Amino acid sequence: MAVSFDIANAFNSIPHSAILEALRYHGVPTYLRSLAAACALAGTPPWELEASVLSAVYHWTAEQRARDLRPAPEERGAVRRHAHEDMVRDWEGDLSRAQFGRRTLDAIGPNLDRWLERPHGFLTYRLVQVLTGHGCFGNYLHKIGREESPSCHECGAAVDSAQHTLAVCPGWEEQRRVLVGAVGQDLSLPSIVNAMLDDERAWKAMASFCETRSAGMAMRRSPYPPRPSVAAALARCR
Ligand SMILES: [Zn+2]
User: Fold this and answer.
1) How many angstroms separate the alpha carbon of residue 229 from the centre of ligand 1?
2) Ligand 1 centre and the CA of 157: distance in Å?
3) Are 101 and 34 contained in the same domain?
4) Same structural domain, 181 and 213
5) Residue-range definition of the domain harbouring residue 188
6) How many angstroms separate the alpha carbon of residue 160 from the centre of ligand 1?
7) How far apart are the C-alpha atoms of 162 and 188, rounded to whole Å?
8) For the chain, counts of helices (H) and of strands (E)
9) Which of 65, 89, 117 is the last residue of a domain?
């Protein structure tokens, strides 16, 4: 599929609304349009919001110079901090209105400032898969044409998903018991993210659950399942 979309440039120069419109125009499947969730996970604000911080500091500095004032570096730092806080509030608002990646955004969005400022918590490949639902889950593999059915290989449930893995599937009971011991009984993603941000032990327990589960799945699922044509996969995702 030819898509005239340079993600490196786009992330650094084009408003997200324009990027999403380009993705829609080119027929990119919805599950690949979760730019807002990707940025939130990475802690990288959209360029236009980053620019608002630079703009606020620039205009404040220009105003000081126009008045022939020489403010201390601490004053400039305070202006930058306030502008950053305003930017995070605006970003939270944008995330609350984003259309795609809602499961991830509903967990991170309300905790965005804590997510950005967390003193602990390394994002692993497997952890991101469970946080986004984009990974070795029946419903996702079915969407992208990697599997014939979205069902769970562990328990036979009609739909396997990241949340099914976390909270329901009997195939992961033992690993879930350890997770519950660290994050509590509520295994909804917002509650887990809250616990992860509160306590490094909970973060590590969640990351460990994701790694263990993924290692188990890798042994059970064929790493190279048959792939349908690209056209058939895209048609299924729309
Ligand atoms: Zn299952």
Assistant:
1) 28
2) 5
3) yes
4) yes
5) 122-238
6) 6
7) 11
8) 14, 0
9) 117
Q: What's the 182 CA to ligand 1 centre distance in angstroms? A: 22
What letter does residue 69 receive in the DSSP assignment?
Answer: -
Going from the Cα of 35 to the center of ligand 1, the distance in angstroms, rounded, reads: 29
Distance 161 CA to ligand 1 centre (A): 8
Tell me the CA–centroid distance for residue 42 and ligand 1, in Å. Answer: 29
Tell me if the pTM is above 0.90: no
- 194 Cα to the center of ligand 1, angstroms: 25
SS3 71: coil
Task: Point out the domain boundary residue: 70, 97, 117.
Answer: 117
Tell how far the Cα of 139 is from the centroid of ligand 1, in angstroms: 12
For residue 152, give every residue at least 6 positions away whose Cβ sits within 8 Å of its Cβ, in sequence order, or none: 138, 159, 160, 164, 169, 171
Distance 34 CA to ligand 1 centre (A): 25
pLDDT in tens, the chain (238 residues): 333 444 444 445 566 566 556 655 655 555 555 788 999 999 999 888 999 999 999 999 999 999 999 889 999 999 999 999 999 999 999 999 998 899 999 999 999 999 999 999 999 999 999 999 998 899 999 998 999 999 999 999 999 999 999 999 999 999 999 999 999 999 999 999 999 999 999 999 999 999 988 776 766 655 444 444 445 555 554 4
Q: Judge whether 20 and 30 are in contact, CB under 8 Å.
A: no
